[in-house]
Structure formats: C-alpha cells, structure tokens
C-alpha cells in the first residue's frame, strides 16, 4: 500500500508523526477584535470602480476603506496582515518566512505593544475602524480567507504594518541582506549591498525604488494656477501597489489620492486646500557596529563591561502543503545600537533611522487633515515617517520640497559610512536630529520644484538650489543623480511659462539627456569594442524611447543594464558587455536587433496586451519587467498611480488620475480589472470626482458595507 503513495505524502506523514510538522492553526495566536461598534459608512463606486467612501465620523470612513479595499484585493491584504502577525510563511512558504524573521528581528510587534496605548484616541479609533472593516468582509466571505485564525484583526495589527515596512523605503533591506548573506561588511564598505540575498519583500523593489514629482508655482505657470504632479513608481501588483480612493467624513475630512494595502487612509493626494506626493530618498540613515562577543556569544563588550544580548526564540511557520507547516526556530538578538545579525565575519548591530516608534501612523493622518501649510508642517514635525521626499503645493500658491528623513544623531569625529566599533558609547548617540535640521526648499525663486530620486541639491534650477555647505555631512544627504532628475530640470528650466499641456509633455517625456549619467553610459557603449552590428543599430538611436525609432528596444535594454549598477550604487559594469547582452536577447527572441519598442515592451493583464513606450530612468518610467516566454517584456513596476493636481486662481482644486490596470487588479471577473489600461498606455487620464456633487451621473453602485 505504501508503494502507491507519493513519497512527499509518506515523508509528510512521518514528519507529522514525530512532531516536526504541525497543523498551522495550532500555531496561530487568537487576537482580540476591536471593541464592538456600529459603523455608519457608505461606499459609492464611480464608473471606473474607484471607491468614494462616506462616513459620519473618520473611523466610519476607515471602516469603509478596509471593506472596499478587501472587495478589490482581499488576497494581498491578507498577506500584509499575515506579515504583521509573523505568519506570512504559512501562506507563501520560505520567502514569507524570511519576512517573518525580519518582523521579529526589528521588534515591530514589540514596538506597537509598547507604544499603542500612548497614541491619541482618534488615531486608535481610526485603526480599529479599518480593522473592523476587514473583519466584516472576512466574516461575509469566509471562502476567501487564506489562513485559519488570521481574523479577527485589530488596530495593533494595522499599526505593525507601518512599523515593519517603513524602513525598507530607504534601504534597510540592503544592509540586512548583506549581513544575512555573509557579504563581507569590511570597514571600507558598510553601506547597502543590493546584490545580497533578499531578506524581505514587504517594501518596494530595491532594484528601482523610484518616483517623479513636479510642482509649479503660479508665477511660473502659464495661467497663474498652482500645479502638482504625483508620479510615484511602485510595483503594479502586491503589498505596495497603489490603490485609488476618495474619502469624505462628516467631520470635514475630505481627501482624494491613493494608499497601500493595510493603510487606513490615503498616503498621498489632495484635499480642498493642499496636496503632496512622495518620492523615495536614500540618505544614509544606517549605521553598522561590529560587536565583540564573549565566548558563550550571549553578551557583548560595551564601555569596558559585558552586557547581555537581548535574545528571543521565535518560530517561523513555513508552509509545506495545505494547512501543514514546518515550524522553524530562530533566535533574534538586540544590542544597545539595534538588532543584531551574526555571520561568518562576526556579529553586527544595525542602527537605523526611525526605529522603535510608530509615530508615522499619526503623522500621515494629520497630514491628510491639514488645511494650511502651517498645519501640514506641524504634522511633518512629528517626524514619524523615517524617510521619503515630500513635494507639496496648496491653494495659496505655496510650493515646497522636504528632504524628509529621520537622521540619526551622530557625533563628530567618526565616519558613519564605515563599520564602527560596537564596544563603546563614544560613537553612538540615540535619538533623531530636530525637525529644524531637515533640508527644506520653500517657494524657490524659479517657481518650480522637481524630484526624481536625485539629490535635494538639484531640485529648483539655476540660482535657486540649496547649498550643500549649509548641511552637516553627518546627516548623510545623498548626492545621487538620475537621468530623470537631470532631464526634468532641463525641461522645466527651459520653459518660462509652463502650461498644463507642457507639464503633461514633461511627465510623459521619454528622452535621455546627454548631460546625464545615462548620456555618458551610451557614449561609452557606442565606443566599446565588440558587436559591430549592434553598434550600428545603436548609432541610429535618437535618444528617445517614444517607440518610433529603430533602435529604441536595443537602447532600452542597454539602459536597463546600466541602471542595474548606477541606481543601486554598485561598481560600474562594462558598457560593451551590456550592449552584447542586450543584442543577444533581441536576436534570440525577435531574430533582429531593431524590433519596434512597442513590440517588445508590453502592458499585460488578463486578456489585455498593449504596447508601451518609455524605459528605465526616463520620465515615462518603465524600469522593471518580467521576461515572458515569448521574449516580450511585461512591465511590472514604474509609472503606476499618476495624479495631476491643480488649484486655479480662485483656489479651487482640480485633479485627474490614471493607473496601469484598474481599481481591482486581482479579480479577473471584475469590470475594473483592466478598464484603465488603454488610457494608461495612451498617456491619457480620467477625472477625479472629488466633490460629492461630481459623482452625479457617474455612480456605478452605492451600498453600505
């Protein structure tokens, strides 16, 4: 009889018998649900399925946000929630277990357990309202629940998601990956090592943490309007993919924008009076300390004494089959400087900006409720969001760029770009620099601001830039440039009267600046010894990825090879090899070196298969793709949620938006699975129906969740 059973089933039965594999629900901790409350919410779906959530109070709105998002993408929301419980591995296997390990390593749940009851009451009510909306959906749709005992969730679970994910937007994954992967952390290189094994998928893809933003003041615009363009580059699917929504509370909370799965409010967009967007910044917020351990490896030397490591045993559930998991034991440790990772080179403590706090939850909420720059600035001064640029505009014509970061306090005389001794307090200072020391650029003389993941010292054009000498090198402000940043400054700086049409052309620009790093890269590729036929084709390129030239596809692949090292701060690769690799790919899959770009670069979702323009590190950003079996490059990351915002001379707000697919990206049966795709591919947008009156004649359905 045993001979007829698959070996995997026999092995599973043996492991269960000896207790190594358990039924996953046995490992799950039952969580207390939020207090019972009757929420007063209404969801109105417009013609594109975008939810407009109305509530008597803000927690009522948060309840509707949770329910509406679950209708559109419950599977992704559950993965985010499983991560907050340390149970992602029970859904996705070993990859999820890596994320669970990082959650424990950073002490995210411990942080929330310590800080949650100290949060303002209105913030906690908002979190509980959102969690209750998710619980209600799970209660009504038990067949869609992926993991037993995942529900109910509560406000603490929601808060953990913020604490766990925030540091990965500025590069913590690089350092942890290097340490976990035994990449040498020599004294001359303690910075992020993006070539190291991935240790967590909860943040953005480290290969291209991008975004573009453009702001125009009335004095620079053709019609006296104030304009802001949000063009945050995120994955098109998954836990950090944008979800569009509009919210209205009876308390005066009105906001249109986008959020991530697991967030109880919009994270960017606009209200009546002001708006903002974000782009990834990459300041040096990470300090690495090498510890001296005792023989038992349970204590470390610090200021001539031995301190015990804070050590905790955790169990990582790794899904094997069905509800059966393999519980893997791991030990996490902390020193005074932060979490500790040990490898063959020793034990290292990592200090990172914004650690061990959950103020970002309140900060984002206060930002959405701000009615003036003064209120918005007070919310920013909470300093809970550990890193990301904020670009701002409002109805008064004020524009601003904040190079936001939780800069660690650092002591003069030490080089924090290198591995530091961990046995002394002389090189360690707890806390964050005050808000007054964070670089800000408000109302520059040029009348415009941009950021495309470039240094904040290139933001406003000639004569209006911040002076690097005014800022301490201990802050670790980045000096990176991108082609997108260089090109945006060229285009904005050359236009003395920027109209709405001008701004749209700039946002969708597909060109490479010959003055950028990419310009030098292409010049070197053209001069390299190697594939003569490929060099001839590249020589015909017009420096533009608009899809009309014969060399666009080859150039896009060559630029992608360059961006792999440039954006990730890795050693420069050989441009001749990059050209040869790109040419070989086109020959293999297309039998030619000059296929049309739109034949190669595609938008694919369900039955939709559309040509795209743009490419890596251009303003029409298409930096990451999957190589399909037919050789086509199916874009998965880049231009995602795009929003054009404007305030006219009377201070009245106007906005338009677009997404690559639609409001419901994981439900193929939904009419909104791909209904924005053709507009997106054609550089077109749809109106944002911000005011309730705008919805008249455009409502698909209205219901109470």
Question: How would you describe this structure to a colleague?
Answer:
The chain has 705 residues and is α+β, with helices and mostly antiparallel strands. The strands form 4 sheets. The protein has a 10-stranded mixed sheet, covered by helices on one side. Strands 4, 5, 21, 22, 23, 24, 25, 26 and 27 form a 9-stranded mixed sheet that branches. Strands 1, 10, 13, 14, 15, 16 and 19 form a 7-stranded mixed sheet that branches. Strand 17 and strand 18 form a beta hairpin.
Low-confidence stretches are 1-5, 7-18, 184-208
Mean pLDDT: 92
Shape: globular
For the CA atoms, what is the radius of gyration? 25 Å
Structural class based on helices, strands and sheet pairing: alpha+beta
**N- and C-termini, Cα separation:** 52 Å
CATH architecture of the domain at 517-655 and 680-703: Orthogonal Bundle
**Number of helix segments?**
18
The strand order across the widest sheet is 20-18-17-9-8-7-6-3-2-28
Quote the CATH topology of the domain at 517-655 and 680-703: Penicillin amidase (Acylase) alpha subunit, N-terminal domain
Largest β sheet strand count, sense and barrel closure: 10 strands, mixed
């Amino acid at each position: 009889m045993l001979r007829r059973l698959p070996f995997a089933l026999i092995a599973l039965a043996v492991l269960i018998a000896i207790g190594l594999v358990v039924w996953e629900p046995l490992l799950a901790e039952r969580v207390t649900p939020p207090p019972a409350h009757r929420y007063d919410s209404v969801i109105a779906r417009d013609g594109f399925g975008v939810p407009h959530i109305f509530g008597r109070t803000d927690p009522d709105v948060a309840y509707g946000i949770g329910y509406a998002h679950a209708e559109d993408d419950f599977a992704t929301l559950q993965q985010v929630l499983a991560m907050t419980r340390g149970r992602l591995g029970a859904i996705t296997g070993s990859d999820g277990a890596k994320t669970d390990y990082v959650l424990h390593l950073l002490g995210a749940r411990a942080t929330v357990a310590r800080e949650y009851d100290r949060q303002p009451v209105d913030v906690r009510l908002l979190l509980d309202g959102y969690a209750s909306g998710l619980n209600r959906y799970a209660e009504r749709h038990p067949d869609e629940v992926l993991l037993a005992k995942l529900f109910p969730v509560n406000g603490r679970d929601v808060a953990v998601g913020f604490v766990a994910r925030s540091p990965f937007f500025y590069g913590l994954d690089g350092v942890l990956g290097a340490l976990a992967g035994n990449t040498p952390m020599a004294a001359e290189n303690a910075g992020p090592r993006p070539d190291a094994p991935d240790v967590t998928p909860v943040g953005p893809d480290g290969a291209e943490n991008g975004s573009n933003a453009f702001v125009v003041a009335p004095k620079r615009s053709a019609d006296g309007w104030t304009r802001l363009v949000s063009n945050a580059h995120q994955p098109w699917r998954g836990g950090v993919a944008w979800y569009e929504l509009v919210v209205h509370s009876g308390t005066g909370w009105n906001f249109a924008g986008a959020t991530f799965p697991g967030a109880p409010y919009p994270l960017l967009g606009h209200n009546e009076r002001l708006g903002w967007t974000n782009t990834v910044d990459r300041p040096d917020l990470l300090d690495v300390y090498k510890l001296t351990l005792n023989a038992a490896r349970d204590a470390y030397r610090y200021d001539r004494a031995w301190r015990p490591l804070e050590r905790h045993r955790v169990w990582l559930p790794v899904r094997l089959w069905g509800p059966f998991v393999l519980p893997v034991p791991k030990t996490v440790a902390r020193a005074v400087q932060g979490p500790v990772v040990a490898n063959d080179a020793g034990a290292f403590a990592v200090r990172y900006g914004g650690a061990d706090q959950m103020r970002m939850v309140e900060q984002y909420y206060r930002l959405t409720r701000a009615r003036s720059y003064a209120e918005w600035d007070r919310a920013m001064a909470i300093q809970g969001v550990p890193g990301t640029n904020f670009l701002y505009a409002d109805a008064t014509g004020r524009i601003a760029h904040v190079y936001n970061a939780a800069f660690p306090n650092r002591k003069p005389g030490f080089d924090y770009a290198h591995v530091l001794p961990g046995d002394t307090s002389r090189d360690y200072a707890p806390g964050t620099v005050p808000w007054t020391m964070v670089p800000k650029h408000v109302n520059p003389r040029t009348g415009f601001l941009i950021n495309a993941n470039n240094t904040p010292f290139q933001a406003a054009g000639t004569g209006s830039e911040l002076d690097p000498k005014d800022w301490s090198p201990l802050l670790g402000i980045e000096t990176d440039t991108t082609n997108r940043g260089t090109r945006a400054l060229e285009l904005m700086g050359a236009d003395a009267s920027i109209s709405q049409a001008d701004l749209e052309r700039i946002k969708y620009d597909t060109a490479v600046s010959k003055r950028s790093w990419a310009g030098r890269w292409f010049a070197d590729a053209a001069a390299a010894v190697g594939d003569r036929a490929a060099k001839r084709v590249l020589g015909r390129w017009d420096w533009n990825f608009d899809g009309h030239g014969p060399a666009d596809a080859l150039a896009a692949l060559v630029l992608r090879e360059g961006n792999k090292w440039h954006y990730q701060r890795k050693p420069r690769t050989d441009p001749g090899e990059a050209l040869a690799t790109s040419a070989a790919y086109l020959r293999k899959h297309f039998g030619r070196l000059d296929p049309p770009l739109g034949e190669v670069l595609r938008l694919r979702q369900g039955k939709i298969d559309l040509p795209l323009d743009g490419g890596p590190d251009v303003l029409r950003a298409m930096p990451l793709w999957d190589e399909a079996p037919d050789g086509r490059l199916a874009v998965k990351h880049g231009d995602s949620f795009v929003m054009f915002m404007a305030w006219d001379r009377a201070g009245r707000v106007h906005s338009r938006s677009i997404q690559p697919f639609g409001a419901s990206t994981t439900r193929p049966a939904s009419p909104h699975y791909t209904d924005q795709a053709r507009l997106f591919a054609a550089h077109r947008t749809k109106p944002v129906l911000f005011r309730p009156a705008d919805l008249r004649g455009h409502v698909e359905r209205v219901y109470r969740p």
